[in-house]
Amino acid sequence: MLQPITKVAIFSLFLVLSSSPPVTESAIGVNWGTISFHRLRPSTVVDLLQQNKVQKVKLFDADPGALRALEGSGIEVMVGIPNEMLAVLGSSSVASDLWVRQNVSSFVGKGGVAIRYVAVGNEPFLSSYAGQFQNYVMPALLNLQQSLAKANLAGYVKLVVPCNADAYEADLPSQGAFRPELTQILTQLVSFLNSNGSPFVVNIYPFLSLYGSSDFPQDYAFFEGTTHAVTDGANVYTNAFDGNFDTLVAALTKLGYGQMPIVIGEVGWPTDGALSANLTAARAFNQGLINHVLSNSGTPLRPGVPPMDVYLFSLVDEGAKSVLPGNFERHWGIFSFDGQAKYALNLRMGNRLLKNARSVQYLPSRWCVADPSKDLSTVANHMKLACSIADCTTLNYGGSCNGIGAKGNISYAFNSYYQVQMQNSQSCDFDGLGMVTFLDPSVGECRFLVGVTDITSAAVGTYWRGVMVWVLILWSVWVFEV
User: Fold this and answer.
1) Which stretch of DSSP H or E encloses residue 370?
2) How far is CA 174 from CA 50, 168, 187, 236, 260, in A?
3) What does the alpha-carbon distance between residue 34 and residue 266 come to, in Å, rounded to a whole number?
4) Cβ-contact 55, 25 below 8 angstroms
5) Cβ contact 105:8 at 8 Å
6) What phi and psi, each to the nearest 5 degrees, are found at residue 28?
7) What is the pLDDT of residues 150-163, one digit of tens each?
C-alpha cells in the first residue's frame, strides 16, 4: 500500500531531526510464520498480539496483508527478506531501492507500521546450504543500506542478518569461534552491524541439541537446574541457552566486538512430532526462558546484560512447513493454528495467562472418518495421498496421536485432508471408505481439527509464491538496468 508522499516526507524530516532512534526496553517478542493450511486473517493475528500485549513481532517476509494489519498497532516489526532474493538485491541498487520503497517506505509514518528492522536473509550461513547464499549477503546489505539512506530511514530502520547457532563452535563457551570458512564474511558483517548500530541476531535451539543427540543431558536443555553443569574455568553453566549465548559472545570477542548487542531471533520448543516435544516440556522451556531473560541476570560472560530482545518461535503452528528437519517443525506455536493457547504461559507483559484469538470463524463442526462398516484393507494408498497433502505428523512415533490405533490413524488422515479441502463433500469419499460424522472423534490429547474459514486452503503456498513474484520482479529490474 503506497502512502502519500507528504506523509513519508514529514516522517523522514522527524527522523532527521531526532538525534537518535527511540530507546526501547528489552522485551519478549514472537515470530509470526504463515506457512499453514489454515491461516487466520492478519487482523485476527494482530488482535491476538495486542490482547497478549506483545510489542515486538518478527516476520519472515514483507507480506502486505500482515503489514497493513499492523498499521497503527504500535507493535515494532522486523520484516524479512528470503535468501532467494539476496543475489538480485546485491546485484542491483535499483532493485534494492524498489524493495525498500514498496516494503518499508510505503508503510512507515504516522499511523503506519513501526518497522524497526529488516532481516536480510534467514540463516544464510547455515552449514547445510554449503555456501549457497554466503557471497550475496554483504552486497545485499550495502545496497539496502544505501536505499534506506535515500529514503531517509537509515537512522530508524536497522539491517540485521539472522544467523543459525551453527555459525560458531567450541567445546567450551569461552573457546567460541566462528567456523573457519565464515571468519572473513562474518568479520565484514559484524563490522557493518557495528558501524550502523545494528545488533547481531542469532537463533538458538536447545531442543535441536537434545533431539539430535542421545548423549545430550535433558535437564541441561531447561532452566530448572541440572546435574550435568558445564564448568568453564571460573564459570559454571547450568543450561544450554547460556552456554550457547556465551559461545557467541566469545566468538564476537575474538573479532574485537565483545560488547556487540545480541538479539535472539528464534528460540522455542515444539509441542508435538517427537518424543521430547510435548506440552509439558514446551511450557517448562518457554516459561523458564522468559523468567531467566527478564530476571536480567545475564550470563557468565555478560553478567547483568541479557539479550536485547528475544523472539519466541513461534506464535502459531504452521502445518504446511517442510518436515525435512523433523515432524516437530509443524508444532512450534505457543498457540495452535487457530490462535488457541496450547498451555499456560506468562509472557510477563501484564497478563498472567495467554488469551485466545477472538472471533475465529470455523468451518461447520463435522469430521471425516473411516467408515467402520467397510473393509479397510485397501486404504494404504488413500492414506498416502491424504498425508502427502495434509498434515499427519502427529501420527508418527512420539506424536500426540501415535497411540490411537490403526483405524484411528486412518480417520485422522482422512479428516486432515477433508479439512484442508474445506470440507468438500467429495474429499471424504476415498472410494467409499470415508464418512462424515458430527461427533468429535478426538481422543485424549489427539485433536481432530476443524478448519477455519478466515483464509482458505488456497493460502497454502502464498509465502513461496510471494517470494518468487518478488524474485521475478527484481530480476527483471536488474536485467533492464544492465
Assistant:
1) strand 367-370
2) 40, 12, 19, 11, 16
3) 15
4) no
5) yes
6) -95, 120
7) 999 999 999 999 99
Q: Report the DSSP pairing between strands 298-299 and 302-303.
A: antiparallel
What pLDDT does residue 201 have?
Answer: 98
Distance CA 44, CA 25 (A): 26
Residue 341: CA atoms inside 13 Å, Cβ hemisphere, count?
A: 16
User: Is the pLDDT reported for residue 6 higher than 50?
Assistant: no
Contact 276, 259 (CB under 8 A): no
* Rg, Å, the chain Cα set: 23
If one counts every other C-beta atom within 10 angstroms of the C-beta of residue 379, the result is 22
Straight-line distance from the first to the last Cα atom of the chain, in angstroms, rounded to the nearest whole number: 28
Q: Annotated catalytic residue: which of 169, 181, 266, 329?
A: 266
Local structure of residue 160 (DSSP, 8 states): E
Whole-angstrom distance, CA of residue 422 vs CA of residue 356: 23
258 near 248, Cβ under 8 Å? no
Neighbours of 283 (CB within 10 A): 17
Calpha distance 465→396 (Å, rounded): 29
Instruction: Return the ∠ at Cα 298 (arms to 294 and 303), rounded to 5°.
Output: 145
Angle between helices 93-100 and 137-150 (to 10 degrees): 60
Rounded mean pLDDT, 80-84 = 98
Q: Phi and psi of 56, rounded to 5°?
A: -140, 135
Angle between helices 137-150 and 183-195 (to 10 degrees): 10
Fill in the amino acid letter for 437: T
Cβ(108)–Cβ(71) below 8 Å = no
Task: Give catalytic status of residue 266 as yes or no.
Answer: yes
pLDDT in tens, 323-337: 999 999 999 999 999
Q: What is the pLDDT of residue 137?
A: 98
> Is 318 among the residues known to form the active site?
no
Q: What's the pLDDT tens digit per position in 195-220? A: 999 999 999 999 999 999 999 999 99
Residue 216: CB atoms within 10 A of its CB come to 16
Give the angle 415-421-424 at the CA atoms, nearest 5°. 90
Which residues lie closer than 8 Å to 257 by C-beta, 6 or more apart?
190, 191, 194
Burial of residue 432 (number of CB atoms within 10 Å: 0-12, 13-18, 19+): exposed
> Region 448-471: what's the mean pLDDT?
64
| 24 or 90, higher pLDDT | 90
Residue 265 half-sphere exposure toward CB, CA atoms < 13 A: 24
CA distances from 128 to 156, 164, 203, 213, 410 (A): 33, 11, 15, 18, 35
DSSP 331: -
The residue from 76, 123, 318, 329 that is catalytic is 123
What burial class does residue 196 get, using C-beta atoms within 10 Å of its C-beta: 0-12 exposed, 13-18 middle, 19+ buried?
middle
